[in-house]
Structure formats: C-alpha cells, structure tokens
Amino acid sequence: MTISSVQKNHLIEKDFDLIRVIEYFSDHNINAQDTYNWLLNDQINANSIFLLGYFDFVTSENERAINLFINASEKNHTLAQFFVGSCYENGYGTIKDEKLAFEYYEKAANKNYATAQSVIGYCYEKGTGIKRDLKMAFYWYEKASNNGNIIAKHNLGVFYRSRIGIKKDYSKAFELFKQSADGGYSGGITVLGDCYSNASVIYKRPLINKG
After folding, report:
1. Euclidean distance between CA atoms 81 and 96, whole angstroms
2. pLDDT, tens digit, 9 for 90 and up, residues 79-126
3. What are the start-end ranges of the H helices in 91-184?
4. Using alpha carbons only, how large is the chain's radius of gyration in Å?
5. 175-177-183-189 Cα dihedral, nearest 10 degrees
6. How many helices, marked H, and strands, marked E, lie in the chain?
7. What angle do CA 88, 130, 112 make, to 5 degrees?
8. What Pfam families does UniProt report for this protein, alphabetically (predicted)?
9. Among 180, 171, 121, 193, which Cα is nearest to 149's?
10. Structural domains in the chain plus CATH codes
11. Contact 174, 205 (CB under 8 A)
C-alpha cells in the first residue's frame, strides 16, 4: 500500500501526512484489516473518512472510494476534494466527467493546495473541463510554483520561454527549470540538462506536463 514515485512528483511535503499513515501501517506490518475496521467505525472524522476511501482506492475499490471521498469533501477535506476530481477526470468508480473534475480540483486549488493549483493550470492550458485560457493557465501555474510545486515550476518555465501572449523571460525560464530539477522532477532535470548541453534549448521545446 504505497504511493508511487509519479504521484509523489505531484505532491509537496505537507500533502503526505495522511497517506504516510497507511504506508506506516504497511511498513510496520500492522494489520491492514484491523486498521480498515477502525476507520470504518470512525466515520465522523473527515480524515478517517478520507483514509478509508484511500484504502479502497489503492485496492481498486473505486466506487466505494469515490463515495467516501465525496463524503469527506463535503466536510471540507481538501485532499478528498482533489481525489474526487481525479476520480471524475479518469472515470475511477464513476462516469468520466472532466467538467465536474475541474470543479472539484478548483475547490482544492482555492484552498491553496499546490497540486490542485498546478492541475487547474494544466486544465486551462489544455482546455480540459474548462475553456482553454493561457492567461489563466499562467496564473495558476504561478500560484502553484510559488507554493512549491515542482511540476508547476517546469510548466511555468515553458510559458516564460515560448508561450504566445506571455512576455518571454529566458532567465526566469531557466531559473524555474533549475528549481524544478533541484526538486527532483524528471521533466525539469531533462530540460535543465539540455540547457547545459545546448544553450539553444532554452528557446524551444515547449513540453507541458500535468500537476
């Protein structure tokens, strides 16, 4: 019961607190069923509801998971709101609905959740669940970048380097690529390596990634 390295790229440190609980149970051979039963009997607490949903999510019980995520999100649980968005976007346990996914991502983004802010930027960039709007994409990438999201830093760097309608700033683009790489994001590492080996790379190759 672990979160993948790809998922970790999307999250900043403070977002792991709840998910680490499940990993702790797994790493220390704590009986998962006992934990699940305990959570099942503690569904007043939003954190418990979310964790119960996450247990179901990682075991592919997606229909139960999204119902629990929705329950927790109605109690204003930020991470649950993000996971509801992910379920709707990808059709996990429900019919795929990109517009509804955007609405849930936006709830989390408006509560200063950096991962959701980065995803909202990507939605505006690609026109996923919302009308395409590069200025709004830039706005949300910038907010997510300022909040430490390493993928948003990479994507914002792409905007500063090559997006039409955005004033180009190659020094800022390079700085953001470096911050993304220093944070461990593979896309940032690749572009930064290309920049060092070929200075012209900073002027081309617009690669936008999600979240």
Report:
1. 16
2. 999 999 999 999 999 999 999 999 999 999 999 999 999 999 999 999
3. 98-109, 114-126, 134-146, 150-162, 170-182
4. 18
5. -140
6. 12, 0
7. 75
8. Sel1 (PF08238)
9. 180
10. 1-111 (1.25.40.10), 142-211 (no CATH)
11. no
Q: What's the one-letter identity of residue 68?
A: L
Cα 98 to Cα 179: distance, rounded to the nearest angstrom:
30
Burial 69-99 (b: 16+ CB within 10 A, else e): bbbbbeeebbbbbbbbbbbbbeebbbeebbe
- Joined together, the tokens standing for residue 47 give 């954190």
Best CA proximity match to 13, nearest among 117, 139, 142, 113: 113
Dist CA 153 CA 35 (whole Å): 37
Amino acid at 186: S
| Cα(164)–Cα(157) distance, integer angstroms | 13
Question: Which residue type, as a one-letter code, is found at position 45?
Answer: N
Percent of the chain scored above 90 by pLDDT? 46
Q: At what angle do helices 134-146 and 114-126 cross, to 10 degrees?
A: 160
In angstroms, rounded to a whole number, what is the distance separating the alpha carbons of residues 72 and 81? 8
